[in-house]
Amino acid sequence: MNTLQAGAPAPSFSLPNEQGDMINLADLAGKKVLLYFYPKAMTPGCTVQAQCLRDTQSEFTDRNVVVLGISPDAVKRLPKFIEKENLNFSLLSDEDHAIAEAFGVWGEKKFMGKIYDGIHRISFLIDEQGVIEHVFDKFKTKDHHQVVLDFLNK
């Protein structure tokens, strides 16, 4: 796994959101984007992370930041997660994990003695010109939103 670092251009992408609409990074030029990769919708850690981002969404909006979650979940699974948790931001489907690989967040993981490939929980703050401004890779799911907001408030 070779995770992209701050200063690198963010790979362009076009992924379907929870309604099947294509979201393109290029269309968000002029705004900051918090792109957070998460392993699977409706699992405990991913739910806590999404709820905290939901609850602080206005703080991100006030800072001109668009929040987007990316997972390998199928599009049909995403509306259920958004509805169940009343999420106020889009989730994108990266079923073939091509975008996760482009950002360097797809790789070997270990869980309960098993080794498998999957998404690592890493977030990227992309600036208004499409350059990675900061990489967040050390946080607890319940603190993720605050770590990002603390960085934005510097």
What do these coordinates show?
It is built from five helices and nine strands. With 154 residues, it is an alpha/beta fold. The strands form three sheets. The chain has a five-stranded mixed β-sheet with strand order 5-4-3-8-9. Strands 1-2 form a two-stranded antiparallel ribbon. Strand 6 and strand 7 form a beta hairpin. The relative contact order is 0.25.
**Class based on secondary structure composition and strand pairing:** alpha/beta
Output the CATH class name: Alpha Beta
The end-to-end span amounts to 29 Å
The helix tally amounts to 5
| Spatial sequence of strands, sheet with the most strands | 5-4-3-8-9
Mean pLDDT across the residues is 94
* Overall number of strands: 9
How is the topology of this model organized?
Blueprint (H helix, E strand, L loop, with lengths): L13 E3 L5 E3 L7 E6 L6 H12 L1 H6 L2 E7 L6 H8 L4 E4 L4 H6 L2 E6 L2 E6 L3 E4 L5 E5 L7 H9 L2
Parallel strand pairs: 3-4, 4-5
Antiparallel strand pairs: 1-2, 3-8, 6-7, 8-9
Question: What would a concise description of this structure say?
Answer:
With 154 residues, this protein is α/β, with parallel strands linked by helices.
Which keywords apply here?
Glutaredoxin, 154 residues, two-stranded antiparallel ribbon, five-stranded mixed β-sheet, alpha/beta, single chain
